[in-house]
Amino acid sequence: MLFFRPAVRAQFTVGAWLRTRSELRDGQAAPLPKGASPAFFTSQRTRLSAGFSGYRFKLGATIQDVRVWGQDASTINRTTTQDNNGLLVHEAWAEIMLLDTMVKNKSLNLKAGRQEIVYDDSRLLGNLEWLQQGRRHDALLIKYESGPYTLHAGAAFNQNRENAAGTVYNPTPPGNYPANTNGGAMYKSLEYLYAARKLGKGHLSFLFLSDQFSKFHPDSTGVKIWDKGVYTRMTTGLYYNNTVDKLTLTAAGYYQFGKNASAQKLSAGLLSAAFQYQLSSTFSAGLGADYTTGGIGGDGTSHTFDPLYGTPHKFWGYMDYFYVAGSSGNRGLQDYYLKTRYKPGMKFQLTADLHQFYSASDLPENTGRKFGTEADLVANYTLTKVIGFEAGYSHFWNTASLTSAGVKNVMNAQSNSNWAYVMISLKTATLFKN
After folding, report:
1. How confident is the model at residue 2 (pLDDT cuts 50, 70, 90)?
2. Where do the Alginate export domain residues begin and end (predicted)?
3. Which of 22, 147, 181, 430 has its CA 20 to 30 A from that of 363?
């Protein structure tokens, strides 16, 4: 009797990534009060990654350390606390190919463990790459692909420890960084379905995501006591991106309903549309608009859209005034923007963006809906495939509406804010085969 066994070809990959970023913050995330001094610091991300793949499986792991230069005394071996960033496991996952590798044009894979979850333009699900800490999930994914079609299903169920009984979960994020995009509590569980079809030079996708948050009741001092049961929030919608000749079109629409982590009934939405036109071989320009609902209805329903676990730094201005860790109220947002890109060669790129921000709902102070204007300028230079340099400058002209109590709540605020940074990145990978 003859047995056939396909040749086993294993691959081992190791890589390192060191990224330092020096920042001057003179009103980044929120305007500073008049007389306040700007901040300056250097943060560093260090990642060591390893991957191993063989017949019908892959393994991946990334160890990450994030810290600010000088936060550790040079003679002290600091033990990382929850209030600092420090050393952690960023990724640790295994992927199993459920279909034999000889089945062509189809794949059915099971991926389990700590992993980045990124879809479409990272608006709702992204790895938050700009933040030195990044974002990851402890999750289980089933991934099916056939020709131009993709179908993914994922789930996560979080616990604080190995409990002896019960599944009550404390969602309070440790340290200074929020669990989700909009600064809220960590989800207790999450499920999603993602379906996409490739187009000529883009794709059309559908997302349905449900995330659950621990129920609670306040004690006599107002501190939350976590209970059994969950509040369930659901988000669904479509994303479209395609390039035809020199024109790239992008559009998205999402609806959010159910209950949020604060037990409020929810009915909210996001609409986005943009185009970018290649005016020459080196220069492109485009216009776009984003609209996220906000405010509270007369019946107590929240209309505040939360962009889930995405990468807001890409969309609503590089100074991160909206939908990041810093509070921006629950008023919703209108963002009308112009984006330009100049790329004369493979090594250098310059982008310049201009945003005009408005509230999506009336403010209690009756100060008008205009939040302000932001200008962003970013230059990238690639010295080699491993070494890259990036520098940026942003300026924000704010209004009384932005600094009012219902939004940023900054008394005696400066009318102009600045932010600048310089970033050095060395990212390398070496491939071993046997």
Report:
1. very low
2. 13-402
3. 181
